[in-house]
Specification:
By secondary structure, this protein is of the alpha+beta class. It has one domain. It contains three helices and twelve strands, in the order βαββββββββαβββα. The longest helix has 16 residues. The radius of gyration is 16 Å and the shape is globular. The relative contact order is 0.21.
């Protein structure tokens, strides 16, 4: 049976536009335990999942939600509550650094990109957000990309809990807590090779 048959269409990630598919897939797998995946096709956020490669030559990955972790699947998350951030996670090599992960963003005034160590960037952004609008990063299909130097790059989306007014405060709190706990594990990711 094809692993992707039962998956939402946007849980199947095509890497045709990426040159170094193996490197990109390895980079994406770094975030299985630290970032949630959003599927707009089924309006769900998955906190527990694995990423499998369907074929070495086809360059297709599939996000497989953990069937034993229904408590880590959040439903009724409409597209309007998830938006791109313009923030990217990149490996140190892409930032001309010795290792680790960096957060890259474009300066609004100059239009130039700058980088900051990932943990510092996440902490700064989180501290700047209002209590009723925390920074809750998620990833979506098409967020895995490649820089001109073939280094992988991961765009971040974020969940805006203010747009979840159709859910109970308990549900919103559970989603917020889960995404935050996963995000905290980003700081444990070691050097990227």
């Amino acid at each position: 049976m094809n692993t992707s048959e039962n998956a939402a269409p946007d849980l199947v990630w095509n890497l045709d536009n990426i040159s170094d598919k193996e490197k990109a897939a390895s980079f994406l797998r770094l975030f299985e335990r630290s970032l949630c995946v959003y599927s707009g096709a089924v309006s769900q956020i998955y906190a527990s999942y694995s990423i499998s490669q369907l074929s070495q030559t086809a360059g297709t990955l599939v996000v497989i939600p953990d069937p034993y972790a229904a408590h880590d699947t959040f439903q009724s998350i409409k597209d309007r509550a998830v938006a791109g951030t313009g923030l990217f996670i990149i490996p140190g090599e892409a930032a001309k650094k010795s290792g680790g992960l960096y957060l890259m963003h474009r300066n609004r005034k100059t239009g130039k990109y700058s980088t900051i160590p990932l943990h510092d960037g996440i902490r700064r952004i989180s501290a700047s957000m209002a209590e009723d609008n925390p920074f809750l990063p998620v990833i979506t299909n098409k967020d895995l990309r490649e820089l001109p130097n073939r280094a992988p790059i991961l765009h971040l989306h974020r969940l805006d809990t203010r747009k979840l007014d159709h859910l109970s405060s308990f549900q919103v709190g559970d989603i917020t807590r889960t995404i935050t706990e996963k995000m905290d594990s980003l700081f444990a990711i070691g050097p990227v090779r």
